[in-house]
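Please review the protein record below. Tell me whether the encoded fold seems credible here:
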Amino acid sequence: MVEAGHLLKQNVVKTQLAPNWLSVPSDRVAIKDVLPTSERRGRGAVSNRGGRFEQEARQREHDGWHEEEPPPLATSVTPEKVRTLITHNDSPDIGFDRSINPYRGCEHGCIYCFARPTHAYQGLSPGLDFETKLFAKAGAAAALERELAAPSYRPKTIAIGTNTDPYQPIERQQRVTRQILEVLARTNHPVALVTKSALVLRDLDLLAPMAQKGLVKIAISVTTLDAGLARKMEPRASTPERRLEAMRLLSEAGVPVSLLLAPIIPGLNDSEIETILTRVHALGVREAGYVMLRLPLELRDLFSEWLMEHAPAKARHVLSLVQSVRGGKLYDATFGKRMTGTGPYAWMVGRRFEIALAKLGFSKSRKRLRSDLFQPPMRESAQLCLF
């Protein structure tokens, strides 16, 4: 299989994760999976390494015939028909038992995104495929109406954006999130949104009236106020200043908005905790939370590659600190530990966060949404009996 200027060789190998980067001397690290800069311009990951279920590995080699650089990776969107939309969970680490994710994959390209390994289930790479080969849930609004109309359904807050961002750039054209919100607004169903995009302001005409009824709250994710670092870590997300502006406008419109400082990356952005909290508090935000960096499965190596590309002088230090909050590993998925980490460094981050919240006057309680206003949509059988 030949691409412009590059020959793809395919060999059958056993699927395995790359070795721990900390065990390799810095002068010997070679990232052979890295794509040319021109091809991944505006993207987060630096490679497209295969997922854990693949039995074949592909390695690019120049064919010697063409000197021109390959074109930048384009974003493709595949419609994905769904029968059901609401996903249920019983995790003790999160404050909701149901969620909706309008999209698979995320064009924001955040290198730290813990959802990247889910793309392996599609037979795609958690690397660049995750941010360029996307899936939009077609017919989402109709599927949601069917689920809400079921006689056994009992309303509780639905979380949207817990895996991939509901307001990523393709939402401007696809409008899946908008259609879902229209159903929830019409049925007076409570919803909690998580995003790092100022595009959420587009839906203020729905969100503001829902907020007046106590049906919605929004968490804006802010990782850093350093525009340069943000461009490298989360290349297609709204800039930090635009996110702060979105928080201000949401707050002024009466929509409850909170800060999600996520992820905190030891040695990279943890120095900004107090500064970020101070900035958002001045905008009227009174709730805040954080999540420690999570590196499950393929994300471990993708994040390590990114560090070697964009922060080589800090790479060893950052990964060493990550290990210190994960019991000597790069990730520990144990319930009760995965969100905050363990050990002295994790304890220090937690105390700094708590002290800053108290000093600035953040609320100690979380806003609860109403479920008693819910009006289920009319079922199809009930509609037919009218004729």
User: Anything to note?
Assistant: The longest strand covers residues 257-264.
